[in-house]
Amino acid sequence: MPQPARSIQAAPGAIDPLPQPYLLFLGDIAEPAYAKTAFGLRDWAGERCVGEYACVGAKVSTGLRFMPPEQAFAEGARSMVIGVANPGGRIPPAWLPSLLQGLEAGLDLIGGMHARLEAIDSLRRVADRLGRRLIDVRHPPPGIPVAHGRKRSGMRLLTVGTDCAVGKKYTALALVREWRGLGVDADFRATGQTGILIAGQGIPLDAVVADFAAGAAEMLSPDAGADHWDVIEGQGSLFHPAYAGVSLALLHGSQPDVVVVCHEVGRDIVLGHPGYPLPGIEDTVELTLRLGRRTNPQIRCAGVSLNTAKLDAAQAERLIAAESERLGCPVADPMRGGEAFRRLAQACLR
Asked: Rounded to an integer, what distance in angstroms lies between the CA atom of residue 198 and that of residue 61?
């Protein structure tokens, strides 16, 4: 007899093993920045992704093979992941036929939205009937304490941004990969649904009650050995009209020794908020250090991570060199790597 659907919640340690490989679902979105979960899984867990699926009229693609759930299941997929992180974390009614199709095809559903899959009656009824799982990862564990503010042992780096979806997660993952190649003891600490899906552990900071958000950051990165580095995935922006509270709680709770400022080249307006111009890199450094000194007086900025995806290789190289000279610090694109990124990684360790 099919077992009732159940919701699996994220915890600060490892989450329950997720059914893999994945079929990435892109809904009907038209803004690529809102598909950061799908792109993150493609780029950092590509071996676990068999293809993508979307509603009619969708404008965004990861470049993976498009396939309906029935084909994906036949080719080995065991779950469909909602690869969208839209404002408010909602699941529109227009997505439900596709999600139900995934369940009927034999796939479990994995959601990283604020909206719980199990709270949607039609999904829950079909999942119960078929014995499929509805797996939510964007929900914090119980028992998160209020932050104590005590300085913890070990070393910490936090990626901060001029806006949402500018490369904070990618920068953190790339730094951990680079450092481990050098023999540095380093761990990636996920604070958002995509990072949790990649790492298999973490706490979704934007789903924590505000009074406990800094405590969640402390819980995520506890005392460690003197030579151990926790590289903490940043969220939002201190300048963001909606999400700055999450960014500040993460900054205070993580108590970073080092920050790297992340920025997307060519973006001038806050994503989803056209009335707000993007802050400058220098303004972001200054505000981050000023506020960060509240819980770590020794905080410093090691450099800047630029998302140069909209430039060709030659343009990116020239801009990276020019910005490094202008700002007086290492500047690099973690996805392009090279000597510039190695300099940035080394500067973080000094």
From this structure: 19
> Distance between CA atoms of 260 and 306, rounded to whole angstroms?
10
Question: Distance (Å, rounded) from C-alpha 285 to C-alpha 127?
Answer: 47
Q: Are 52 and 64 spatial neighbours (Cβ–Cβ below 8 Å)?
A: yes
Query: Model's pTM, two decimal places?
Result: 0.88
Domain span(s) for CATH 3.40.50.300 in the chain: 155-349
Q: Regarding beta strands 229-232 and 155-161, do their DSSP bridges make them parallel or antiparallel, or are they unpaired?
A: parallel
- In this prediction, residue 15 has a pLDDT band, given cuts at 50, 70 and 90, of low
Fold assignment, 22-136: Rossmann fold (3.40.50)
Task: Locate 295 and state its tokens.
Answer: 């819980």
pLDDT digits (tens, 9 = 90+) for 91-131: 999 999 999 999 999 999 999 888 899 999 999 999 999 99
